[in-house]
Amino acid sequence: MASAERTTETREHSRIRIRSDVAITRGHMRRARIVLAATAVAWAAAPRLVDGAPAVTTEHARVARTPEMLRQPPILRNMSSHPGVVEVTLTAAPTRLQLLPAGPLVSAYAYNGSVPGPTLDLREGDSVIIHFRNQLPEPTTVHWHGFHIPADADGSPLVPIAAGTAHDYRFRLAKGSAGTYWYHPHPDRRTRFQVSMGLFGGIIVRAPSDPLTAKGIPEKLLILSDNRFDSGGAIAFPHATSLAGGIDLENGREGNVLFVNGQVMPTIPIRRGELQRWRIINASAARVYRLALAGQRLVHVGNDGGLFERPVEVPEILMANSERLEVLVRGTGSPGDTTVLEDLPYDRYMPQTRPADWDRTLQVLSSRCSTATACRSRSAAGRIRGTCPSTRRSASRSTSTIIQENGCSTVISSITRTTG
Known about the structure:
By secondary structure, the chain is α+β, with helices and mostly antiparallel strands. It has a domain at 85-210: Sandwich (Immunoglobulin-like). Helices cover 16% and strands 36% of the residues. It has helices spanning 3-22, 26-45, 58-64, 191-196, 211-214, 243-251; strands at 49-50, 53-54, 85-98, 105-111, 117-123, 127-134, 143-145, 166-172, 179-184, 201-206, 219-227, 257-260, 267-272, 275-282, 289-293, 298-303, 306-314, 317-319, 324-330, 338-343, 362-373, 384-387, 400-405, 408-413. Strand 1 and strand 2 form a beta hairpin. The protein is globular and about 55 Å long.
Protein backbone atom coordinates (compact mmCIF):
# COMPACT_ATOMS: atom_id res chain seq x y z
CA MET A 1 0.00 0.00 0.00
CA ALA A 2 1.33 3.42 -0.90
CA SER A 3 2.38 5.82 1.88
CA ALA A 4 -0.54 8.14 1.17
CA GLU A 5 -2.98 5.25 1.42
CA ARG A 6 -1.47 4.16 4.74
CA THR A 7 -1.85 7.72 6.03
CA THR A 8 -5.49 7.81 4.91
CA GLU A 9 -6.15 4.44 6.56
CA THR A 10 -4.57 5.67 9.82
CA ARG A 11 -6.80 8.74 9.78
CA GLU A 12 -9.86 6.53 9.15
CA HIS A 13 -8.97 4.34 12.11
CA SER A 14 -8.48 7.43 14.27
CA ARG A 15 -11.89 8.76 13.27
CA ILE A 16 -13.49 5.40 14.10
CA ARG A 17 -11.88 5.41 17.56
CA ILE A 18 -12.96 9.01 18.18
CA ARG A 19 -16.54 8.22 17.10
CA SER A 20 -16.58 5.16 19.36
CA ASP A 21 -15.37 7.18 22.36
CA VAL A 22 -17.91 9.94 21.78
CA ALA A 23 -20.74 7.43 21.40
CA ILE A 24 -20.21 6.05 24.92
CA THR A 25 -22.74 8.43 26.43
CA ARG A 26 -26.40 7.58 25.97
CA GLY A 27 -27.15 10.99 24.52
CA HIS A 28 -24.68 10.58 21.70
CA MET A 29 -25.85 7.04 21.01
CA ARG A 30 -29.46 8.25 20.83
CA ARG A 31 -28.56 11.00 18.37
CA ALA A 32 -26.56 8.54 16.24
CA ARG A 33 -29.60 6.23 16.05
CA ILE A 34 -31.78 9.14 14.90
CA VAL A 35 -29.35 9.98 12.08
CA LEU A 36 -29.16 6.36 10.98
CA ALA A 37 -32.94 5.89 11.14
CA ALA A 38 -33.55 8.96 8.98
CA THR A 39 -31.39 7.69 6.13
CA ALA A 40 -31.12 3.90 6.40
CA VAL A 41 -34.32 3.06 4.52
CA ALA A 42 -33.32 5.09 1.48
CA TRP A 43 -29.79 3.70 1.62
CA ALA A 44 -30.95 0.08 1.84
CA ALA A 45 -33.37 0.38 -1.06
CA ALA A 46 -30.87 1.92 -3.48
CA PRO A 47 -27.72 0.48 -5.08
CA ARG A 48 -24.87 0.94 -2.61
CA LEU A 49 -22.54 3.84 -3.18
CA VAL A 50 -18.82 3.29 -2.72
CA ASP A 51 -16.81 6.48 -2.95
CA GLY A 52 -19.38 7.78 -5.44
CA ALA A 53 -19.57 4.63 -7.61
CA PRO A 54 -22.70 2.43 -7.52
CA ALA A 55 -22.07 -1.10 -6.35
CA VAL A 56 -23.12 -4.17 -8.31
CA THR A 57 -26.66 -5.09 -7.27
CA THR A 58 -27.88 -8.55 -6.37
CA GLU A 59 -29.95 -8.62 -9.56
CA HIS A 60 -26.86 -7.86 -11.65
CA ALA A 61 -24.95 -10.66 -9.95
CA ARG A 62 -27.76 -13.11 -10.66
CA VAL A 63 -27.87 -12.26 -14.35
CA ALA A 64 -24.09 -12.30 -14.72
CA ARG A 65 -23.44 -15.76 -13.28
CA THR A 66 -22.57 -18.65 -15.54
CA PRO A 67 -23.36 -22.16 -14.25
CA GLU A 68 -20.24 -24.27 -13.77
CA MET A 69 -19.21 -27.35 -11.85
CA LEU A 70 -17.96 -26.76 -8.32
CA ARG A 71 -14.16 -26.76 -8.15
CA GLN A 72 -12.27 -27.96 -5.11
CA PRO A 73 -9.46 -25.68 -3.86
CA PRO A 74 -5.94 -27.06 -4.45
CA ILE A 75 -4.23 -28.95 -1.62
CA LEU A 76 -1.10 -27.46 -0.08
CA ARG A 77 1.83 -29.68 -1.07
CA ASN A 78 3.62 -31.36 1.82
CA MET A 79 7.36 -30.88 1.35
CA SER A 80 8.28 -33.27 4.18
CA SER A 81 9.11 -36.93 3.62
CA HIS A 82 8.95 -37.74 7.33
CA PRO A 83 5.85 -39.57 8.65
CA GLY A 84 3.69 -37.41 10.88
CA VAL A 85 5.29 -34.16 9.68
CA VAL A 86 3.55 -31.69 7.38
CA GLU A 87 5.70 -28.86 6.02
CA VAL A 88 4.17 -26.36 3.60
CA THR A 89 4.78 -22.90 2.20
CA LEU A 90 2.04 -20.27 2.27
CA THR A 91 2.43 -16.84 0.66
CA ALA A 92 0.06 -13.89 0.99
CA ALA A 93 0.45 -11.44 -1.89
CA PRO A 94 -1.45 -8.90 -4.01
CA THR A 95 -2.70 -10.23 -7.31
CA ARG A 96 -5.25 -9.61 -10.04
CA LEU A 97 -8.06 -12.13 -10.46
CA GLN A 98 -11.40 -12.48 -12.21
CA LEU A 99 -13.74 -12.65 -9.24
CA LEU A 100 -17.11 -12.13 -10.93
CA PRO A 101 -18.36 -14.38 -13.76
CA ALA A 102 -17.42 -12.69 -17.05
CA GLY A 103 -15.99 -9.84 -14.97
CA PRO A 104 -12.68 -8.02 -15.39
CA LEU A 105 -9.39 -8.76 -13.68
CA VAL A 106 -9.39 -6.79 -10.43
CA SER A 107 -7.04 -6.26 -7.51
CA ALA A 108 -7.22 -8.85 -4.75
CA TYR A 109 -5.15 -10.49 -2.04
CA ALA A 110 -4.54 -14.23 -2.30
CA TYR A 111 -2.80 -17.11 -0.60
CA ASN A 112 -0.55 -18.85 -3.14
CA GLY A 113 -2.35 -17.02 -5.93
CA SER A 114 -5.88 -18.37 -5.44
CA VAL A 115 -9.16 -17.36 -3.76
CA PRO A 116 -9.94 -19.24 -1.63
CA GLY A 117 -6.43 -20.28 -0.69
CA PRO A 118 -5.20 -23.88 -0.91
CA THR A 119 -6.56 -26.41 1.57
CA LEU A 120 -4.37 -27.55 4.44
CA ASP A 121 -4.99 -31.32 4.72
CA LEU A 122 -3.75 -32.75 8.05
CA ARG A 123 -4.11 -35.70 10.40
CA GLU A 124 -4.44 -35.87 14.15
CA GLY A 125 -1.02 -35.90 15.79
CA ASP A 126 0.77 -34.21 12.89
CA SER A 127 3.65 -31.85 13.58
CA VAL A 128 2.93 -28.88 11.33
CA ILE A 129 5.40 -26.36 9.92
CA ILE A 130 4.07 -23.50 7.79
CA HIS A 131 6.68 -21.29 6.12
CA PHE A 132 4.68 -18.09 5.77
CA ARG A 133 5.80 -15.22 3.55
CA ASN A 134 4.06 -11.86 3.73
CA GLN A 135 4.35 -10.15 0.36
CA LEU A 136 1.43 -7.82 1.12
CA PRO A 137 2.01 -4.07 1.42
CA GLU A 138 0.86 -4.18 5.05
CA PRO A 139 1.26 -6.31 8.20
CA THR A 140 -0.77 -9.48 8.53
CA THR A 141 -0.99 -12.76 10.45
CA VAL A 142 -2.37 -16.24 9.75
CA HIS A 143 -4.91 -17.44 12.31
CA TRP A 144 -5.77 -21.17 12.37
CA HIS A 145 -9.43 -20.80 13.30
CA GLY A 146 -10.60 -23.38 15.83
CA PHE A 147 -7.22 -24.94 16.61
CA HIS A 148 -6.15 -25.46 20.23
CA ILE A 149 -2.50 -24.52 19.86
CA PRO A 150 0.00 -22.27 21.70
CA ALA A 151 -0.77 -18.56 21.53
CA ASP A 152 2.49 -17.69 19.79
CA ALA A 153 1.54 -19.99 16.89
CA ASP A 154 -2.10 -18.88 16.61
CA GLY A 155 -1.62 -15.79 14.42
CA SER A 156 -3.10 -13.29 16.87
CA PRO A 157 -3.00 -9.51 16.32
CA LEU A 158 -0.34 -9.37 19.04
CA VAL A 159 2.20 -11.10 16.79
CA PRO A 160 2.00 -9.27 13.43
CA ILE A 161 4.15 -10.28 10.46
CA ALA A 162 5.51 -7.12 8.86
CA ALA A 163 5.20 -6.48 5.14
CA GLY A 164 8.00 -8.12 3.18
CA THR A 165 9.01 -10.49 5.97
CA ALA A 166 8.60 -14.21 6.69
CA HIS A 167 7.62 -16.27 9.71
CA ASP A 168 7.41 -19.99 10.51
CA TYR A 169 4.30 -21.23 12.30
CA ARG A 170 4.96 -24.48 14.19
CA PHE A 171 2.47 -26.55 16.20
CA ARG A 172 1.32 -30.10 16.84
CA LEU A 173 -2.25 -31.32 16.48
CA ALA A 174 -3.72 -33.16 19.44
CA LYS A 175 -5.56 -36.45 19.29
CA GLY A 176 -9.30 -35.93 19.03
CA SER A 177 -8.93 -32.76 16.97
CA ALA A 178 -10.35 -34.17 13.71
CA GLY A 179 -12.78 -31.79 12.03
CA THR A 180 -13.20 -28.92 9.58
CA TYR A 181 -11.42 -25.62 10.22
CA TRP A 182 -10.24 -22.60 8.27
CA TYR A 183 -7.40 -20.08 8.21
CA HIS A 184 -7.48 -16.34 7.67
CA PRO A 185 -5.58 -13.15 8.60
CA HIS A 186 -6.11 -11.57 12.01
CA PRO A 187 -4.23 -8.24 12.02
CA ASP A 188 -5.33 -5.45 14.31
CA ARG A 189 -8.33 -3.58 12.77
CA ARG A 190 -7.64 -4.99 9.28
CA THR A 191 -9.10 -8.50 9.48
CA ARG A 192 -12.36 -7.63 7.69
CA PHE A 193 -10.51 -5.85 4.90
CA GLN A 194 -7.96 -8.59 4.27
CA VAL A 195 -10.52 -11.41 4.38
CA SER A 196 -12.79 -9.46 1.99
CA MET A 197 -9.82 -8.99 -0.34
CA GLY A 198 -9.53 -12.78 -0.62
CA LEU A 199 -7.41 -14.14 2.22
CA PHE A 200 -9.08 -17.29 3.54
CA GLY A 201 -8.76 -21.03 3.07
CA GLY A 202 -9.97 -24.36 4.43
CA ILE A 203 -8.38 -26.87 6.79
CA ILE A 204 -9.30 -30.53 7.15
CA VAL A 205 -7.97 -32.56 10.08
CA ARG A 206 -8.55 -36.29 9.62
CA ALA A 207 -8.90 -38.95 12.30
CA PRO A 208 -7.04 -42.29 12.12
CA SER A 209 -10.44 -43.92 11.65
CA ASP A 210 -13.34 -41.93 10.21
CA PRO A 211 -16.66 -43.85 10.02
CA LEU A 212 -17.90 -41.89 6.99
CA THR A 213 -14.63 -42.24 5.07
CA ALA A 214 -14.61 -45.95 5.94
CA LYS A 215 -17.99 -46.31 4.21
CA GLY A 216 -16.62 -44.81 1.00
CA ILE A 217 -18.78 -41.67 1.21
CA PRO A 218 -17.18 -39.01 -1.03
CA GLU A 219 -16.73 -35.54 0.41
CA LYS A 220 -16.84 -31.99 -0.88
CA LEU A 221 -15.38 -28.88 0.75
CA LEU A 222 -17.69 -25.86 0.45
CA ILE A 223 -16.25 -22.50 1.55
CA LEU A 224 -19.05 -19.92 1.65
CA SER A 225 -18.21 -16.25 1.28
CA ASP A 226 -19.84 -13.05 0.09
CA ASN A 227 -18.53 -9.79 -1.31
CA ARG A 228 -19.48 -6.38 -2.62
CA PHE A 229 -18.30 -4.84 -5.89
CA ASP A 230 -18.36 -1.43 -7.54
CA SER A 231 -19.64 -0.76 -11.06
CA GLY A 232 -16.23 -1.64 -12.49
CA GLY A 233 -16.19 -5.06 -10.83
CA ALA A 234 -13.60 -4.13 -8.17
CA ILE A 235 -14.04 -5.12 -4.52
CA ALA A 236 -15.85 -2.19 -2.91
CA PHE A 237 -15.34 -0.68 0.53
CA PRO A 238 -17.29 2.35 1.77
CA HIS A 239 -15.40 5.19 3.36
CA ALA A 240 -15.24 4.71 7.12
CA THR A 241 -16.93 8.06 7.81
CA SER A 242 -19.70 7.60 5.22
CA LEU A 243 -23.22 6.44 6.06
CA ALA A 244 -22.53 3.07 4.43
CA GLY A 245 -19.35 2.79 6.45
CA GLY A 246 -21.26 3.47 9.65
CA ILE A 247 -23.82 0.82 8.82
CA ASP A 248 -21.03 -1.67 8.09
CA LEU A 249 -19.57 -0.81 11.47
CA GLU A 250 -22.87 -1.74 13.09
CA ASN A 251 -24.02 -4.69 10.95
CA GLY A 252 -20.69 -5.99 9.74
CA ARG A 253 -19.66 -6.05 6.09
CA GLU A 254 -22.24 -8.11 4.21
CA GLY A 255 -21.82 -8.59 0.46
CA ASN A 256 -24.63 -9.03 -2.05
CA VAL A 257 -22.81 -11.61 -4.20
CA LEU A 258 -22.56 -15.12 -2.75
CA PHE A 259 -19.64 -17.44 -3.54
CA VAL A 260 -18.86 -21.11 -2.98
CA ASN A 261 -15.14 -21.82 -3.37
CA GLY A 262 -14.87 -18.52 -5.22
CA GLN A 263 -17.64 -19.43 -7.71
CA VAL A 264 -21.11 -17.95 -8.12
CA MET A 265 -23.92 -20.53 -7.96
CA PRO A 266 -21.83 -23.57 -8.95
CA THR A 267 -23.28 -27.04 -9.56
CA ILE A 268 -22.35 -30.24 -7.73
CA PRO A 269 -22.92 -33.45 -9.74
CA ILE A 270 -24.36 -36.30 -7.68
CA ARG A 271 -25.54 -39.75 -8.76
CA ARG A 272 -29.10 -40.77 -7.99
CA GLY A 273 -29.05 -42.44 -4.60
CA GLU A 274 -25.47 -41.37 -3.82
CA LEU A 275 -24.58 -39.98 -0.41
CA GLN A 276 -22.11 -37.09 -0.26
CA ARG A 277 -20.45 -35.53 2.75
CA TRP A 278 -20.34 -31.75 2.55
CA ARG A 279 -17.85 -29.95 4.79
CA ILE A 280 -19.13 -26.36 4.91
CA ILE A 281 -17.20 -23.32 6.15
CA ASN A 282 -18.75 -19.86 6.61
CA ALA A 283 -15.90 -17.52 5.66
CA SER A 284 -18.18 -14.49 5.26
CA ALA A 285 -17.27 -11.46 7.34
CA ALA A 286 -20.75 -10.99 8.82
CA ARG A 287 -23.41 -13.01 6.97
CA VAL A 288 -25.35 -15.61 8.95
CA TYR A 289 -26.58 -18.38 6.65
CA ARG A 290 -29.84 -20.25 7.17
CA LEU A 291 -29.19 -23.19 4.89
CA ALA A 292 -31.87 -25.47 3.47
CA LEU A 293 -31.85 -27.93 0.58
CA ALA A 294 -35.10 -27.46 -1.32
CA GLY A 295 -37.31 -30.55 -1.07
CA GLN A 296 -34.96 -32.44 1.24
CA ARG A 297 -33.92 -32.73 4.86
CA LEU A 298 -30.26 -32.44 5.76
CA VAL A 299 -28.49 -35.03 7.88
CA HIS A 300 -26.31 -33.01 10.27
CA VAL A 301 -23.35 -35.20 11.25
CA GLY A 302 -20.80 -32.70 12.61
CA ASN A 303 -19.90 -29.14 13.52
CA ASP A 304 -16.94 -27.11 14.83
CA GLY A 305 -16.05 -29.90 17.26
CA GLY A 306 -16.01 -32.70 14.68
CA LEU A 307 -18.44 -35.58 14.12
CA PHE A 308 -21.44 -36.14 16.37
CA GLU A 309 -21.98 -39.42 18.18
CA ARG A 310 -25.24 -39.74 16.23
CA PRO A 311 -26.59 -37.84 13.21
CA VAL A 312 -29.50 -35.41 13.41
CA GLU A 313 -32.04 -34.97 10.62
CA VAL A 314 -33.01 -31.30 10.18
CA PRO A 315 -34.98 -29.22 7.66
CA GLU A 316 -32.49 -26.34 7.87
CA ILE A 317 -29.29 -25.27 9.64
CA LEU A 318 -28.34 -21.84 10.99
CA MET A 319 -24.66 -21.09 10.41
CA ALA A 320 -22.94 -18.09 11.96
CA ASN A 321 -19.87 -16.46 10.45
CA SER A 322 -16.68 -18.51 11.03
CA GLU A 323 -18.78 -21.58 11.91
CA ARG A 324 -18.21 -24.97 10.29
CA LEU A 325 -20.56 -27.91 9.85
CA GLU A 326 -20.77 -31.29 8.12
CA VAL A 327 -23.89 -32.71 6.47
CA LEU A 328 -24.82 -35.75 4.42
CA VAL A 329 -26.72 -35.04 1.19
CA ARG A 330 -28.53 -37.58 -0.98
CA GLY A 331 -28.83 -37.53 -4.79
CA THR A 332 -32.54 -37.63 -5.66
CA GLY A 333 -34.96 -37.17 -8.52
CA SER A 334 -34.76 -38.01 -12.19
CA PRO A 335 -31.61 -37.65 -14.31
CA GLY A 336 -30.95 -33.98 -14.97
CA ASP A 337 -33.04 -32.73 -12.03
CA THR A 338 -31.46 -30.03 -9.90
CA THR A 339 -31.85 -29.30 -6.20
CA VAL A 340 -30.93 -25.85 -4.86
CA LEU A 341 -29.13 -25.12 -1.60
CA GLU A 342 -30.82 -21.95 -0.35
CA ASP A 343 -29.95 -19.23 2.13
CA LEU A 344 -33.27 -18.49 3.82
CA PRO A 345 -34.01 -15.06 5.35
CA TYR A 346 -32.60 -14.44 8.82
CA ASP A 347 -33.22 -11.16 10.63
CA ARG A 348 -30.15 -10.30 12.69
CA TYR A 349 -30.33 -6.53 12.09
CA MET A 350 -31.18 -3.40 14.03
CA PRO A 351 -34.50 -2.01 12.72
CA GLN A 352 -32.82 1.27 11.75
CA THR A 353 -30.20 -0.40 9.53
CA ARG A 354 -32.00 -3.52 8.30
CA PRO A 355 -31.42 -3.96 4.52
CA ALA A 356 -34.57 -3.57 2.44
CA ASP A 357 -34.10 -7.01 0.83
CA TRP A 358 -33.13 -8.94 3.99
CA ASP A 359 -36.19 -11.21 3.65
CA ARG A 360 -35.26 -12.59 0.21
CA THR A 361 -34.29 -16.24 -0.22
CA LEU A 362 -30.90 -16.48 -1.95
CA GLN A 363 -29.48 -19.35 -3.98
CA VAL A 364 -26.10 -20.70 -2.92
CA LEU A 365 -25.48 -23.66 -5.24
CA SER A 366 -27.28 -26.48 -7.02
CA SER A 367 -26.81 -30.24 -7.13
CA ARG A 368 -27.62 -32.04 -10.37
CA CYS A 369 -28.68 -35.69 -10.44
CA SER A 370 -26.78 -37.72 -13.02
CA THR A 371 -28.00 -40.73 -14.99
CA ALA A 372 -25.94 -43.21 -12.97
CA THR A 373 -27.48 -44.79 -9.88
CA ALA A 374 -25.87 -45.47 -6.53
CA CYS A 375 -28.80 -46.85 -4.54
CA ARG A 376 -26.88 -49.88 -3.34
CA SER A 377 -24.33 -48.21 -1.12
CA ARG A 378 -21.47 -49.94 0.70
CA SER A 379 -22.35 -51.69 3.91
CA ALA A 380 -20.19 -52.27 6.98
CA ALA A 381 -21.38 -53.54 10.36
CA GLY A 382 -24.88 -52.34 9.42
CA ARG A 383 -23.98 -48.72 10.08
CA ILE A 384 -24.89 -47.35 6.67
CA ARG A 385 -26.95 -49.36 4.24
CA GLY A 386 -28.92 -48.59 1.10
CA THR A 387 -32.15 -50.30 0.11
CA CYS A 388 -34.47 -50.23 -2.92
CA PRO A 389 -37.38 -49.81 -3.22
CA SER A 390 -38.41 -47.35 -0.50
CA THR A 391 -38.80 -48.48 3.09
CA ARG A 392 -40.90 -46.89 5.77
CA ARG A 393 -39.48 -45.18 8.81
CA SER A 394 -39.22 -47.92 11.43
CA ALA A 395 -36.22 -47.12 13.63
CA SER A 396 -36.18 -44.87 16.65
CA ARG A 397 -34.96 -41.36 15.84
CA SER A 398 -32.69 -41.56 18.90
CA THR A 399 -30.70 -44.42 17.36
CA SER A 400 -30.95 -43.83 13.63
CA THR A 401 -31.95 -41.38 10.95
CA ILE A 402 -33.69 -42.44 7.77
CA ILE A 403 -33.72 -40.38 4.60
CA GLN A 404 -36.54 -41.40 2.26
CA GLU A 405 -36.45 -39.96 -1.24
CA ASN A 406 -37.77 -41.18 -4.59
CA GLY A 407 -37.70 -44.91 -4.14
CA CYS A 408 -34.49 -45.22 -2.09
CA SER A 409 -33.74 -44.95 1.60
CA THR A 410 -30.54 -44.88 3.55
CA VAL A 411 -30.33 -45.86 7.17
CA ILE A 412 -27.58 -44.03 9.05
CA SER A 413 -27.24 -45.51 12.49
CA SER A 414 -24.86 -45.19 15.38
CA ILE A 415 -22.27 -43.08 13.56
CA THR A 416 -19.58 -42.77 16.21
CA ARG A 417 -16.47 -40.65 16.21
CA THR A 418 -13.25 -42.63 16.47
CA THR A 419 -10.33 -40.61 17.77
CA GLY A 420 -7.68 -43.35 17.66
